[in-house]
Amino acid sequence: MSVENEERAARRWGQGRGVAWAVVGCLVLGGVLMVVPPDGGDGDGGGGDGGGGRAARVVGAAGPEGRARAVMTAGAPAALPAVASVVREREARVRDRPRDHTSWAVLGVAYTERARRTGAFADYPKAENALRTSLRLRPTGNVDALEGLAALANARRDFRAAKHWGEEAVRVAPERWTSYALLIDAYDGLGRYKAARAALGRLLTLNSGPAARARAAQVYWDQGAREDAATTIADAAASETTPVGPSAAAAAWWVRAGELAWERGEAAQSLRYCEAAGSEPEADACRGRALAALGRTAQGVRAYRVALSRRPSAQVALRLGELYASLGRAGEARKQYGVVRTLVARAAGAGVNESLVLGALEADHGDPEVAVRVLRAEWERQPGLRVADALAWALHRAGKDEEALGFARRATDRARGGEVRSAAYACHRGVIERALGLAAPARRHLAEARRLNPYFSVGGGRRFA
After folding, report:
1. Which residues contact 331 (CB under 8 A, 6 or more apart)?
2. How far is residue 442's CA from residue 363's CA, in Å, rounded to a whole number?
3. CATH: 1.10.10.10, 1.25.40.10, 1.10.357.10, 3.40.50.170. Which one for 281-353?
4. What are the residue ranges spanned by the domains of the chain?
5. Fold of 2-13+38-280
6. Which residue, among 140, 136, 192, has the nearest Cα to 162 in the 3D structure?
7. DSSP state of 416
């Protein structure tokens, strides 16, 4: 039944493809429907329950105030031109009214979103300054600033900080559903999957719309419910897609649907979803991976190059380097690995944690001992499944297979919380078991990896696409 729902969702967007996509979903230049807090105002938006729960209402959103409020309350990706407009408006506003705590909070959120969408690392320190200024101006009841700081911490992959700020936001405004969405990301990054499920349950009692369903899809995936996750994210994207094209939120969700389809070994479906995302900045990388998996490697390389020109990303640069390596283009691969190091360093300078990417690079293309040090420290900070898998692989590459197997088991055993059904995790465990002479479990886990995603590079244990 879930497969039928996914196919129906795909047909819904397919009927309207081919024209320009709508400017935004919940944040629009000009004026469309959006969700705002009950007060509908600007200066005191951080007080009370903060809105965004059952009391939220739908109104017309026009002009600077509407755009700014949408940034704070939509709970979904916004169109980049609208974000840029909010930045300009709020920069002017805080120059004129430097004690306007709400404008400082809106500005901080907009800086974070612009950085996330464009890879402009310099916006992250600006976001932190703006949000902390808002909190200093209104230190109590300022849920806008608290949520903004949680979103900033998630974007920087500082999940402990995100948990702190998200829980503070919930304490101040327990009926504001967007705080629970932020906490899901934080708990997921910390490996606290039961807490993430509890946060999702609370979120869905407050909001059952597309943005809430998109968050639910990630939790379903982490629980190993791959088809439910794929259906849910595709349906959320389809519900925000019209014959004109997807909203900004829907475009981001189509990209996520494409990523999940690739993880399920459905490269052709992944490509269709990525194409549905239109000009979403992350869609090019999504297309690149699907094209490479389908053997259309020249097109895949071009898509990755476009992605990096539009939005610098250490993860995408690593994928491109590994694609070059798989094609025998060793010189270009080495050059790309240098780009990865540069981007990781730039990110670190802005407080962004790229330990997983750096660990993967060092494990397979640099110094595995360095990878182990980086990822062991990351495990101490944020012991999630992704870190467990990455550390297991780094330990294997460093010749420490017995210790590696312990972390690989953490990433794959349900009893240890490893509910994600991932070809990467299964493959890494199988390779480690094979190195230890555990032939039967090695065969089982390598076969599982092939079933989960035949496009994963089983032999090397790393994905190049």
Report:
1. none
2. 21
3. 1.25.40.10
4. 2-13+38-280, 281-353, 357-465
5. 1.25.40
6. 192
7. G
| Token pair belonging to 345 | 């360093």
Could you read off the pLDDT of 423-459 as tens digits, one per residue?
Answer: 999 999 999 999 999 999 999 999 999 999 999 874 3
Q: Which of 3.30.1330.40, 1.25.40.10, 3.40.50.720, 3.40.50.1820 is the CATH number of 357-465?
A: 1.25.40.10
Q: What does the alpha-carbon distance between residue 81 and residue 88 come to, in Å, rounded to a whole number?
A: 11
Structure-token pair, residue 388: 């467990």
C-alpha–C-alpha distance, residues 56 and 284, integer Å: 35
pLDDT digits (tens, 9 = 90+) for 77-130: 788 899 999 999 999 999 999 999 999 999 999 999 999 999 999 999 999 999
Confidence of residue 65 (pLDDT cuts 50, 70, 90): low
Category of 119 on φ-ψ map: left (φ > 0), alpha (ψ -120 to 50) or beta: left
Q: Is 245 helix (H, G, I), strand (E, B) or coil?
A: strand
Q: 101: Cβ–Cβ under 8 A, 6 or more apart, which residues?
A: 46, 133, 134, 135, 137, 138, 142, 144, 145
Give the CA-trace dihedral at 357, 275, 23, 214, to 10 degrees: -60
**DSSP notation for 198-227:** HHHHHHHHH--SHHHHHHHHHHHHHTT-HH
Residue 377 in contact with residue 184, Cβ under 8 Å? no
Q: What is the DSSP letter of 278?
A: T
- In this structure, what DSSP letter does residue 22 have? P
